[in-house]
Design goal:
single chain, about 500 residues, alpha/beta, Rossmann fold, 4 domains, 6-stranded mixed beta sheet, 5-stranded parallel beta sheet, about 30% helix, about 20% strand
Length: about 500
């Protein structure tokens, strides 16, 4: 049992006792407990620095920074200079007023441990703000200046200068004096520093991947995608909510009716059918699996039909589930007795049987089939009880193009000369679909980098964090992108 403080005042404080039941749930009981007039004081900057050093092992790094965004960028830039596998990051935030002569660090820096030795990495993004590491004022020399990306071993008593002009004779203490920690513990660092796990190893150092020698887990590519990420298809989204999302989320309401477990999304290519399937799974909190229909085909007799059976079996086992089958027409063509259709006939028959079984099953498992050519699909599959709900995913209209544009530019800085209405009208005239809009925004971003000559800075490795604030997309960037896409369409 542990005590968690809440609602403190000058004289007393209520505590919440937290206990665990056999089922693993927390029961909270509030009761008054006497508390003294003083509360624990937050450790000063030097103490928090020592806590970070105590927490370091040979798979972690301590970052000391006044600007986390800048230090993260520089740490990623110089990650391969760190020759240990980084799995955890402790961040010591230096707040305004914690330094003597300046409001922020002259240079952010990182410290890591290897073979019981400690090393400092300069995270400076400005060539004039080199990090200085030495023992005293008298020991100053150019060898003790570290430019961005440079590493130096730390010895006992070394001072890490941050721009402050403090010397031993002044009677004041430096904020960052390296002393090898006498103990190793993470509790204090976890309490007073920001702690984060390095989840995407590729964003840090390549040595991490090699050191761990384990495959990276497959990303859940539906994560974060919702109906809010889809523009121009409000009517389609409302239909999917009606027939799928609400029945999955509120099964007791729909328990006495037959659900449409087979749904056909049809319409022109690149208009959002696959995106709808992924968003649908998240909105319904359902298991999502995606297939291309051509994956089911096999030259071995009976294998194609067995592949289809396995997909339906898995869908029922995963319920509530969304199973998305793209290019559905490739396995569901009309059975007309011709030589071209004979190979497909057994698969169509199998699909009919599987859909009939799924309809009888109580499990909320939905099969979403997508096609650009509805007219090729066998009519028996399009009947009620099979894929009886047909939803057209149409080309976006003017309002839809505006929505899609706003979705794809919500994290971009757009200049005042950009008129969304005019751009959308131009896109409509050139028959842009949702994928074209996304491509246009991406291309406009690259055009903006060229216009600002940031591509040259990247090539010369002179790009700094402040350059990122200059990135803004102009009307000319978008028009240039539209011109390229239109030319490609011809």
């Amino acid at each position: 049992m542990k005590l968690l403080p809440i609602n403190c005042n000058s004289y007393s404080c209520k505590y919440t006792t937290t206990s665990q039941t056999a089922t693993g749930q927390n029961n909270k009981i509030s009761k008054p407990v006497f508390k003294s007039l003083w509360s624990p004081k937050t450790p000063d900057l030097s103490e928090r620095f020592q806590y970070g050093l105590q927490a370091l092992d040979e798979q972690s790094v301590l970052v000391v920074t006044s600007n986390e965004a800048s230090s993260n960028m520089m740490l990623e830039t110089y990650a391969d200079n760190i020759d240990i596998p980084v799995m955890k990051k402790y961040t010591l935030h230096v707040k305004k007023g914690e330094l003597k002569d300046c409001d922020e660090l002259n240079s952010n820096f990182a410290i890591y441990k290897k073979n019981n030795k400690y090393y400092i990495l300069s995270l400076s993004e400005h060539p004039l703000k080199n990090l200085r590491v030495d023992m005293s004022k008298e020991a100053y020399n150019k060898d003790n200046l570290l430019s961005g990306g440079k590493i130096k071993e730390l010895n006992n008593g070394v001072i890490i200068h941050t721009g402050e002009m403090i010397w031993e004779t002044s009677g004041e203490k430096h904020k960052f004096v390296f002393t090898p920690p006498k103990i190793s513990e993470t509790h204090s660092a976890e309490k007073y520093l920001e702690v984060s796990n390095v989840k995407n190893l590729k964003e840090f150092n390549k040595r991490t991947i090699n050191a761990l020698n384990t495959p990276e887990p497959k990303t859940n590519y539906t994560k974060g995608i919702t109906f809010e990420d889809i523009g121009g298809l409000d009517d389609v989204i409302e239909t999917l909510k009606k027939y799928v999302v609400r029945p999955i989320n509120y099964p007791e309401v729909y328990k006495n009716i037959r659900l449409n477990k087979g749904i056909l999304l049809w319409g022109p290519p690149r208009c959002g059918k696959t995106l709808l399937g992924k968003a649908l799974a998240n909105e319904a909190n359902a298991k999502y699996r995606e297939y291309n229909a051509n994956e089911f085909k096999s030259s071995t007799v009976g294998t194609s039909e067995n592949n289809i059976r396995q997909v339906f079996k898995q869908a029922a086992a995963d319920a509530p589930s969304i199973t998305f089958i793209d290019e559905f027409d490739s396995i569901a063509k009309t059975r007309d007795g011709s030589s071209n259709a004979r190979f497909d006939d057994p698969m169509v028959n199998q699909l009919l049987g599987c859909m009939s079984d799924l309809e009888k099953c109580a499990a909320p498992a939905f099969i979403i089939a997508a096609t650009n050519m509805k007219k090729l699909i066998d009519p028996a599959l399009l009947a009620s009880g099979r894929f009886g709900l047909h939803i057209e995913v149409h080309m976006p209209d003017l309002e839809g193009l505006k929505q899609i544009f706003n979705i794809h530019t919500k994290k971009q800085h757009i200049m005042n000369d950009v008129s969304v209405k005019e751009l959308s009208q131009t896109m409509l005239e050139n028959k842009f679909n949702g994928s074209d809009v996304a491509e246009m925004v991406t291309d406009a971003f690259f055009n903006g980098l060229e216009r600002l000559e940031l591509n040259k800075k990247m090539d010369n490795k002179t790009l700094v964090f402040s350059d990122l604030e200059k990135i803004a997309l102009s009307k000319s960037d978008f028009l240039k992108a539209i011109q390229r896409i239109v030319k490609q369409k011809i």
